[in-house]
Amino acid sequence: MKPACSYAATHAASLADPAGFWAAQATHLHWDKQPENPLSQDANGFYRWFAGGELNTSFLCLDHHVQQGRGDQPALLYDSPVTRTRRSYSYAELLDLTARFAGGLREIGVAMGDRVIIYMPNVPEAVVAMLACARIGAVHSVVFGGFAPHELAVRIDDARPSAIICASGGMEFDRVIPYKPLVDEALAKATHKPAHVVVLQREFVTAELQAGRDVDYQTLLRAAPVPALPVPATHPLYILYTSGTTGRPKGVVRDHGGHAVALRFSMEAIYDLAPGDVIFTGSDIGWAVGHSYIVYGPLLRGCTSVLFEGKPVRTPDAGTFWRLVQDYQVQVMFTAPTAIRAIKKEDSDGRLARQYNLSSLRHLFLAGERCDPATYAWAQQLLGVPVVDHWWQTESGWPMLATLVGLEGMPAPRAGSAGHPVPGYDVHILDEVGEPVAPGTTGLVAVKLPLPPGCFPTLWNDDARFHESYLAPFPGYYLSGDGGYRDHEGYTYIMGRVDDVINVAGHRLSTGEIEEILAAHPAVAECAVLGIADSLRGQVPMGLVVLKDGQTIGEGQLEKELVAAVRATIGALACFRTVLCVARLPKTRSGKILRKTLRQLADGEDFALPATIDDPGILDEIRAGLARRGVGVAFETTKST
Ligand code: COA
Ligand code: AMP
Q1: CA-CA distance, 116 to 304, in Å (whole number)?
Q2: If you take atom 5 of ligand 2, which residue's CA is the nearest one?
C-alpha cells in the first residue's frame, strides 16, 4: 500500500525539519536503545545521525523478520548459471548461518570494531559473511573480485583487517578465476598482515591453505550461534573503497543507524516494495548498488532478494535476466544501463525476452551511469513498464535523484533525466564560484548539508580528505563531482563527471591512477588518460603517450606493455586497451593538459579552440591519430530535454 503522502509534501517536510522527518522514519526500526539526538555534529563539525542510539543491522535484517513470523519466507534466492546452481534461503536459514558464522569469526579473534575484508563473487556465503560481521560489530569491506592484487593490497593496508574472507575462485562466463592466489599475492605486497584468511572452497577450484593462518569457511560455520550485539548507531557497518582522482582509493564509511533508516525508507518510497516482494538487482556485492539493493535494503524491508552469479549475456544468453524475472516473479529489477546495452546488442528485437513471462515486473530501475535515451526507449518498449533512471554514488549509498514510485503525485520518469530530488536531498546546480545557475544551464551538482541518513559521515581514517574533497569547495554543500542541469520543469539531468573519474561499464575508475601506471613505464615521458565514448560500456579509458627523447619502441609494443601493466595493477575490469603515441600533449600556456578538449576531440564533439592553448596544431595531429585508431565515434552523448 502506498504511503498516504505525496512526493512534494514528503520532500518539503524532509528539508524543513530533517531531524524530525528522519526521527519519524527511525521509529519503524527496532532500537536496543532509542537515539537521544536524531541529528548532531561531531568534533569535526561533520553531521551524525542518531547519536546515542543502539541497534544492530544484522538483527534488523534477520532476527526481526523471524520474530515477526516471516522465518519461512525466502530471504535470498541464489541463481548461478555459471555453476549450474540454484538455492533458496529462508530468513530462518539465513539467520542460522549468519549467527553461526559470526560465532566462528569470534572464535578466530574477530572483535567489535575490527575490519574484515571480503573478496568473493556473488555467492550466498559472501552475504552471510557481511551479515555476520555486522552481527558482532566488525566492519566489513567488500572488494570487487575483478580487482588485481595490487588494488587489494592497497585496501588491506588502509583498512588493516584482522581477517580476510575469500572464495577459492570465481567463474567469469566459463573461465575459472582462482581468487586465493590473488589474495596470497596481495598479502605478500601488503605491509599489514591479517591474522587469518578464511577460505570458501568452491567445487570447481580448490585453494591451498597456509597452515596456522588459513581456515576453511565451513569450520567457522560449526561454531555456536551468537546473538546480535547492539552497537552505537554511529558505529561503522562497512567501508567501501571507491576511486578518487588519485591512485589512493577513498574508503567510504557507512554507519549502522542512519544506513538502516535510509535504506528501509528507500525500499518503500523509491521502489514501492513491501515485505515479501521480490527484487532482483543485477550488480555485484562489491559495489555500492550490490551492498544496498542486493543485501541490506531488501533484507531490512523483509523482501526476497535474487542473488545472481553471472552476466547479463553469455550466461548462457541475453535472456538470462528475463528468465530470473519469470522464475522468481520479480517485481522490481535494478541494473546498470550497460547491462541493458549488452542485452540489446545481442537481442535487439527482444526475441529472447519474449520467451519469458514478465508480467510480475512493475519497474526497471537503472543507475551507475546516465542511461542514454536510446537504451531507455528500447527497455521501455521491450518491457512495457516504467523505466526509472536514478542517480547515486558510493558516497550516498542510496539514490539522491529518482522517480519515487512509492509516493503519490510523482512526475513521470523522462528519458535522459535522473528525475527529482529524493526526500532528504536538497540538490543544487552551482557555477564555479558556488552560485546557483539558471534552469537549463549546466553546472556542478551539489547537495546542501546536512546530507540525509545513510550517506557517508566521513572517509575511513581520513577526515581531512573527506573535508577537502567534498565539503571545502563550497561551504555548506556536498560537492558530488558530477555535472548536470535542471530543466524548466524541475527534471535534473546528470551528464557525467567533472573530475578525473570515468565510468566504465558502471564501474568507477580514476584516470589519475591509470596515468600513474603509464608514467612508470621507462619509455614514457608524459601521458594523459581519457575516458572515450564506448557503445557498450559507456566509457573506456585510452592513453595518449609522449615518448622520452631517444626512445624507439613501436606504438604496438608499447600498447601491449601498458595494457598488461594496467591489467596487472588495477585489474581486467579497467578495460584499458588503446594507446596512442603523440608528439606532444595539448597544454595551456601555463602547462596544464587540456583534458576537456582532448575528451571532446576523442568523442568527435564540436568545440571551441581554447584561447589559452600553446600549440593549436597538435590537436590536428591527435585527431588524425585517433582516426587512425578508430577512436572518435561517439554514441549519443548530447543533452536531451
Ligand atoms: N572477477 C574477475 N574478473 C572480472 C570480474 C570479476 N568479478 N568482473 C569482470 N572481470 C573481468 C572480465 O572477465 C573481463 O576480463 P577480460 O578482459 O579478460 O575478458 C574484464 O574484467 C572486463 O569485464 P566487464 O567489463 O564486466 O566485461 P564483460 O565483457 O565481462 O561484460 C558487461 C560486459 C556489460 C556484460 C558487464 O560489464 C556487466 O554486466 N556490467 C554491469 C555493470 C554493473 O553491474 N555495474 C555495477 C553498478 S550498478
Ligand atoms: P559509483 O560511486 O561507482 O556508484 O559511481 C557514481 C557515479 O556514477 C556518479 O558520480 C555518476 O557519475 C555516475 N552515475 C551513477 N548513476 C547515474 C545516473 N543515474 N545518471 C548519471 N550518472 C550516474
Answers
A1: 26
A2: 393
Q: Is the CB of 328 under 6 A from ligand 2?
A: no
Ligand 1 centre distance from Cα of residue 145 (Å) = 10
Q: Residue of the nearest CA to atom 14 in ligand 1?
A: 572
Q: What's this model's pTM, rounded to 2 decimal places?
A: 0.95
Identify whether the C-beta of residue 369 lies closer than 8 Å to the C-beta of residue 337. Answer: yes
Which protein residues touch ligand 1 with a CB less than 6 Å away? 121, 145-146, 170, 172, 177, 283-284, 287, 289, 311-313, 336, 338-339, 342, 367-368, 505-506, 536, 572-573, 575
Specify the pLDDT at position 615.
Answer: 82
Which helix (H) or strand (E) element contains residue 85? strand 85-90
Identity of the amino acid at 145: G
Q: Is the peptide bond before 298 cis (omega within 30 degrees of 0)?
A: no
Q: How far apart are CA 430 and CA 423, in angstroms?
A: 20
Residue to mutate, 503, 511, 640, ligand 2, most ligand atoms under 8 Å from C-beta: 503
pLDDT tens figures, 133-153: 999 999 999 999 999 999 999
CB of 207 closer than 6 angstroms to any ligand 2 atom:
no
Question: Which ligand places an atom closest to the C-alpha of 143?
Answer: 1
Instruction: Say if ligand 2 is within 6 A of residue 272 CB.
Output: no
What is the spatial distance between Cα 55 and Cα 235, in angstroms, rounded to a whole number? 10
Q: Among residues 619, 518, 511, 609, which one has the least CA distance to residue 563?
A: 518
* 284 pLDDT tier (thresholds 50, 70, 90): very high
Ligand 1: nearest atom to the Cα of 311:
39
CATH topology identical between 7-310+390-484 and 505-638: no
Q: Please tell me if the CB atom of residue 394 comes closer than 6 angstroms to any atom of ligand 2.
A: yes
Spatial distance between the Cα atoms of 138 and 412, rounded to a whole number of angstroms: 42
Residues in a beta bridge with 92: none
May I ask the CATH class of domain 505-638?
Answer: alpha beta
Superfamily in which the 7-310+390-484 domain is placed by CATH:
ANL, N-terminal domain (3.40.50.12780)
Question: For residues 119 and 143, is the Cβ–Cβ distance under 8 A?
Answer: yes
Sign of CA dihedral 274, 278, 279, 285: positive
**Helical pair 18-26 and 256-269, crossing angle rounded to 10 deg:** 80
Quick check: 524 and 510 in contact, CB under 8 A? no
- Give DSSP secondary structure letters for 308-333: E-S-SSSSS-TTHHHHHHHHHT-SEE
Is the model more confident about 244 or about 214?
A: 214
Q: Give dist(CA 206, CA 203) in Å, integer.
A: 7
Question: How many other CB atoms are found less than 10 A from the CB of residue 60?
Answer: 26
Q: How far, in Å, from the CA of 392 to the mean position of ligand 2?
A: 6
Q: Is the dihedral of CA 140, 146, 148, 150 positive or negative?
A: negative
Half-sphere exposure of 545 (CA within 13 A, CB side): 32
- Phi, psi dihedral angles at 577 (to 5 degrees): -135, -10
**Considering the chain, what percentage of its residues have pLDDT values greater than 90?**
87
CA of 299 to the centre of ligand 1 (A): 26
- Please state the domain extents for the chain: 7-310+390-484, 505-638
